[in-house]
Amino acid sequence: MSERSSVTLSDVAAVAxxxxxxxxxxxxxxxxxxxxxxxxxxxxxxxxxFRPNALAQSFALGRSRTIGILAYNARGAFTxxxxxxxxxxxxxxxxxxxxxxxxxxxxxxAESVRRLLARRVDGLLVLGDGFQSQLRSVTGDFTVPVVxxxxxxxxxxxxxxVPDGEMAGRLAGEHLLSLGRxxxxxxxxxxxxxxxxxxxxxxxxxxxxxxxPAAGDTLRGDWSRASGAAACRRLIESGTPFDAVFCGNDQIxxxxxxxxLEAGRRVPDDVALVGVDNWETVISGQGTRHLxxxxxxxxxxxxxxxxxxxDGRDDPGPHxxxxxxxxxxxxxxxxxxx
Amino acid sequence: MSERSSVTLSDVAAVAxxxxxxxxxxxxxxxxxxxxxxxxxxxxxxxxxFRPNALAQSFALGRSRTIGILAYNARGAFTxxxxxxxxxxxxxxxxxxxxxxxxxxxxxxAESVRRLLARRVDGLLVLGDGFQSQLRSVTGDFTVPVVxxxxxxxxxxxxxxVPDGEMAGRLAGEHLLSLGRxxxxxxxxxxxxxxxxxxxxxxxxxxxxxxxPAAGDTLRGDWSRASGAAACRRLIESGTPFDAVFCGNDQIxxxxxxxxLEAGRRVPDDVALVGVDNWETVISGQGTRHLxxxxxxxxxxxxxxxxxxxDGRDDPGPHxxxxxxxxxxxxxxxxxxx
DNA sequence: CTGAAAGCGCTTACAG
DNA sequence: CTGAAAGCGCTTACAG
Lengths: 338, 338
Description:
The structure is a homodimer. Chain A is α/β, with parallel strands linked by helices. Chain A folds into three domains: 4-61, Orthogonal Bundle (434 Repressor (Amino-terminal Domain)), CATH 1.10.260; 66-163 and 298-322, Response regulator (Rossmann fold, 3-Layer(aba) Sandwich); 165-295, Response regulator (Rossmann fold). Chain A is 40% helix and 18% strand. Chain A has helices at 9-16, 20-28, 35-47, 54-61, 80-92, 106-118, 165-178, 194-209, 225-238, 250-262, 298-311; strands at 66-71, 96-101, 123-127, 134-135, 146-149, 152-153, 159-163, 184-189, 219-221, 244-247, 272-276, 292-295, 317-321, 324-326. In chain A, helix 5 (80-92) crosses helix 11 (298-311), helix 7 (165-178) runs parallel beside helix 8 (194-209) and helix 9 (225-238) crosses helix 10 (250-262). Chain A is elongated, with a radius of gyration of 26 Å. At the A-B interface, helix 4, strand 1, helix 5, strand 2 and helix 6 of A face helix 4, strand 1, helix 5, strand 2 and helix 6 of B.
């Protein structure tokens, strides 16, 4: 394997006793070629372990086999899985990727767009950070496909992949109801936060469909563990009875749980807990999952968005990417006490 | 920006009134060129917004501006940050990357190596998963630089970047000692686990240097929260007095904490807790960090490894990448109870 | 069905 | 210091 495999198409043609163009056509499936010739050339190519020089091919075809990725914050916790999902999917299709981590600076973005154009990328994937409410549309700058992930743009025709927040709330609600819980409280971030709002809508819709009210008003704060803990104290002090809490994310859920434990309430016996994000690292074969959560499917979302770019498919508008319930000990999965 | 910027080097040469070769040399800094000519050509290039076609350049130079990445498990929790660190670093240097996620299958790896060779990658980065004890060396298959991250190979001359596990243990130990803790217990994974062993060595060395014994023998299990909880119960039952626990990772620490809370011991007042991994998502400006932990610096490790590949630097042997202590509420940082 | 030729847009010895 | 020319290894009309 170590020898530089610089056997070229000319070599193949020479050995097979045909012209360069015939060899090329035979290998690429184009044009009419007699089956016999095609087979002979294929055989020679195989025998010589011919691998077309990708650089020459790209140059001739004007296709770089590279997808550009423009990230608002590549290192953000919620961008990483999307990015990895996209990069892994692209690799599986022999597509390289070129990442520019622009931050939120419009000038940096514009410069990145120019560089991407010069690199002749075959498509562009723009990654929001999951917080930025609105992404800048750059679709007009490109003739190749542009797809957005983890954010929406200002253009309705742009193809945007976002997690299905309502589904997250629905899955959590349905799971808790199926466990017989009837007094479900909700602790999450502020109302103006789009992610919080979607998840809440899903929960409340599900409860309403079951003819149940929520256990008290939604308690709000930020996305932190401390905020969840504080809200849980308020919930307990309010005297509202509750047998489950749907938490806007896993950090909140952990904060809630610690306050419950200190207050002597047992999880899940007295109170079942569901978070969102699936942030817990569960190494396969080791232990059991502690926190029941909704996995927002960010890696799959990245892969789906990448797939559309790579396909050159046009599928305009927002796409709500499905999420998935993952059951752990805090709703009775796994061993109790884990 | 929308117009296809297909102004070519010939255009620049024509407008500047020089030959193609002169234009090329002027822009690339090569050869002797009169300052005046160089300036004029540069000016024309700027005015025309000339961007060399990267595909043509790559083809002519035989350099793809692409780094291959071979991952044992791209989607693994501990590979993601390394991968993102590497990809982001490479993007900043105009290097694309082509990821093959081979799993542990040697045939898939061999095939990926062949494809990478055909793509004429400028270098290769091999990503271990942080568990695999030994990586397969593929350095011999390439003439371009090969660097390994998050794993060691069987060849001493290979350049390998791994987290400095001993440093993690030292940082944790020193932090707890500086807080006045003197009875430090240790709960971690099995002895044969390289990561566990390194961290333990660091802790024990630090304690020994301070003339202190550990609080009891190291308690072992796996990397899960449940295992941490179980070990903590054993610790409490053993009657060994302890005022701190260094936990092999964050999951273990969370399990330990829940058992402490149920047992009525206060964190950090009665028992301080340090984990490893920095798995907690702390959104800037929201709340405070709960768990004190050692960040193993995986993203930085990925970037460092990528830098070496991109530089084409030769720096043989293992490189222990530094980690960093991150203080949270479980050792008194942040607000108590968070 | 097959081949000779042009072309993709650069870089780089080689002459002058 | 500058230019004419070859070459990187493919693909693809265009003839035959």
